[in-house]
Specification:
alpha+beta; 14% strand
Length: 462
Amino acid sequence: MNERVSELTYATINELAFMIHAGEVSPVEITEQVLHRIQRLNPKLNAFVTLTAELAIEQAKQAEHDIMHGRYKGPLHGIPIVHKDLYYTKGIRTTASSKILKDFVTDYDSTVVAKLHEAGTILLGKVQTHEFAAGMTTSSPHFGPCRNPWNLELVPGGSSGGSASALASGMAYLATGTDTGGSIRIPAACCGVVGMKPTYGRISRYGIMPMAWSLDHPGPLARSVLDASLCLDVMSGFDAKDVSTVDLPPPGIKLYPEGLNGVRIGLPTNYYYDGLEPQVEAALQSAIHTFRELGAELIEVEFPLIKHVPEATMAIMMAEMYSIHEKWMEKKSDDYGQDVRMFLESSKDIPASIYLQSQRARQLVTDDFLNAMSGIDVLLTPATPNTAPYSDDQAGALRLTTFTLPTNLTGMPSLSLPCGFSPSGLPVNMQLIGRHFEEAEVLGIGYAYELATDWHKRHPQL
């Protein structure tokens, strides 16, 4: 590979931004290089639903012109990105990887898309999701399976599998995702990249195809913690079009230049470390050792009510999702893939009493978390109990949600970041969980770990 191309392919946004601002590289050069890589690799990976190559070049030329004339907008200016195909994009189809919406085109951008466009990003296209975000494999019966760059026989995780696959393979520098039961953090773990699920209400959901309104969290995927932080700051903010959003400044990132002395990290004594694959457990134990070397204090914590999380989360998810899809299920049920149709059919008869009891349990579990975390800064857990499963391993795919569900229910910020590899070369991620709207601490502690390790610098050999 040409040294210049190799340098650009896996550069971080922070590195690219410095080169762009200094005039060492142009947005056009970066965009042409990444489009060439997409042309070469996407036939293997099938991450893209819609490629917007002409638009990307047009936007790159505009970014180059603006920057040369002193109108530099910040670190995302001139950076090529992709959007999960749930995000509405004006004049560009939003399919949700479904047959029902295969030709759906809106006349407006989602709030997040508009913000990232205003920040100067370059749109490479829309990438795959599990159909309507309702699964962990990103294997669409309508657009074909998206594949994992580390091993093409493995799933990339879901539902933001296209986002993670594109990032890990060097086909994008930044990606948007959504997380209802783990759909940002799980693909990040399966593909060895960074995924940030922020606090519920930190980012507007307006113009994003919903899966379950009260559990959906938009957020960024990136190849480094700092890159995820830069994107989160742009995505964040109050939006009058989404009543769940809060009026707070962007979170930023809390830096720990002197190490993690004084930082208290919680290690759950129940639930989160049950049933781990040996390679996942080994990677987490190594991460715990690294945090101790950085000066952090590790403290055991317990969650008495966490056992209620799976049932309560699934009841809420199923009831809310069916209410969104009810009319389509009545008229177009055969247009769904089998797995999603079966999920919706099983969701049809969730009693209102179960839904309301689950919402009550949600508050009790949230209080349980807040009590357990009262004396610590973040929780450290595995992101998933297993590495990326094979495409026909349904049990392995279902297990992926085990450790991500709790913070969809509680709405707490959760960061998935690389912490090791299995003996067969598959990535392993850990998860850092913080209190509501304390993303700066979560990201900062993750960044301190990232600086002390090199897991995020390893890439698949495609």
